[in-house]
Design goal:
This protein is mostly beta strands. It has one helix at 18-22; strands spanning 27-34, 37-44, 50-56, 62-64, 84-87, 90-94, 101-104, 111-112, 123-130, 135-141, 150-156, 163-171. It is 3% helix and 41% strand.
Length: 177
């Protein structure tokens, strides 16, 4: 027979923990379409909450785009969002560790394409592809530099090309209520 213990309200120990409930639950977000392929982000608790961009092709096969050392996540706006964009099979994403933008071509490791800052001070999010000018247009946030807290920024899509601010007149500063 089970040994029943009585405890004051709210102080009893349950064998069911929040970790037990969510440890195998994969969160899905940010779906994107590119030709016949579908992309999304999986938040994987079993990988310490790492966010992985997944591609599903028309034949039903799935592939992780960012390898284990990359976490497709940004801290722009403090809460993130707009972590990646895809164009003609090439994925551009913000990496959580350094907040820089990487380019992931099919069957190739990701390559750094933003070079504004060597640490995670400058952050990027909400990118869109401008194929005519070979660039990404995105939100760039610098929480240290109050004059350029949040601006619209241009990043060349090719590794090794300079990153340049194309829209310095468009400065967005969030007002606190």
């Amino acid at each position: 027979m089970t040994n029943v213990k009585t405890a004051p309200y709210g102080s009893w120990k349950s064998p069911i923990t929040s970790d037990l409930i969510v440890k195998e639950t994969i969160g899905l977000s940010q779906p994107r379409l590119d030709g016949d392929d579908t992309y999304w982000i999986e938040m994987r608790p079993s990988e310490k909450g790492r966010q992985v961009i997944v591609r599903r092709t028309s034949d039903g096969s799935t592939t992780d785009i960012n390898p284990p050392e990359f976490n497709a996540r940004t801290r722009v706006h403090e809460y993130g969002g707009g972590d990646y964009v895809v164009h003609e099979g090439t994925v551009y994403f913000s990496n959580f560790a350094d907040q820089q933008i990487y380019r992931a071509d099919p069957d190739s490791p990701p390559q750094l394409i933003s070079t504004e800052c060597s640490d995670d001070r400058v952050r990027y999010a909400d990118a869109v592809v401008d194929p005519r000018r070979n660039r990404l247009i995105c939100v760039c946030e610098d929480p240290v530099n109050r004059a350029k807290r949040r601006i619209i920024w241009s990043v060349c899509r090719s590794p090794g090309e300079p990153t340049a601010c194309s829209f310095p007149e468009m400065i967005f500063i969030r007002r606190r209520a």
